[in-house]
Amino acid sequence: MYKHMVDVRAKQGYTTALMLFAGHSPTFLYPDQWNASYLRNWYLVDSYISYANQKGLIPVLGTGFHKALDKVPLSQLKLLWRYLIARYSAYAVGWLIVGEYNFQNDSRRIAKVDELGEYIKKLDPYKRALSVHPWLYTKEKHQLWDRPWYDFIMIQGGHGYPPPIKYYLSIFNRSPAKPFLETEARYEGIFNAGPDDVRHAAYRAIQAGSFGYTYGSHGLWLPLLYPGEKIPSLEAWGKALPWWQALKRPGAEQMGHLRRFYEALPWWNMAPRPKQVIDNIGDDDKRRVLLKGDDDRWWAIYFPRYLDANHVVRLQRMPQGVYTGKWFDPRRGVFTSLPKAFSPTSGGYLTLPARPAGSDWLLVLEKVR
Q: Where in the numbering of this chain does the Apiosidase-like catalytic domain appear (predicted)?
């Protein structure tokens, strides 16, 4: 089962996989010694991590979810992390202390996570990427964003409509600057979210500054669902599929298209450029056209499916020159070149072509001379 999941995601182009240890009732230590039954199966974990690395995936290792660590003394958690670091830091891995660390903004848990973060960063000889997964963005208080050990900011956009564009942009433009990642938004299947919803959440986050997107599918996040099972904690979020069906929802494949789209561009030089877009939609966040560019040669424009297909969109402050363009279909992962080159007006305005059809599309512009 594990190999099949890794094989599918690796073929689709994924880069990381979240792996949580300890569960919701961790008993890995007795008062004076390790729990032997807890240690007995670590050789299986070794093989899991090794296999993921062989397939090009980086496991991100964590130790539970929101209240899971509350009853575990800090001294025991430090011993567990010392063991994890000693055993796995030579692999290609990342560290995730816990999920929803600031659930209900419990000050004791937040302080415990903060001290663990300092401990892990100090102990890890390779300084692997370290972060902590937060509570829903409307409820968390950003307590640890500026801590030195906190390498990148995690966002939980949640499973309703994604966060406002201005929220993402405020994080991208904050000082001191840190990379941020949308780590939980619109899992496919939760509240009937389909591939259209997944693409909308993913592209708008990345176009607004997130350095990636974490895909999730209802029936794959813990616990895995088997035929005939009904787990109330899962059903509350919508109808969950058995794990092998949840693995192959259409949105999962389309996230591979997303990666290939950005890798076809010099993405490392491109940043959000919202002020260059003239779309005349006022405060309608759902219809917002989002631009990323390097201000010299490349521009990527995202058109959401909520925007009318023939809605006129212009860019301003475009450098003089000759441009070529190509459409990208995020459902099929296919580029289609525009038939003719074009140029902005003498005032730097450029009217964008109408989309090939309704739904969401991306347009790539390149200044060729």
A: 6-269
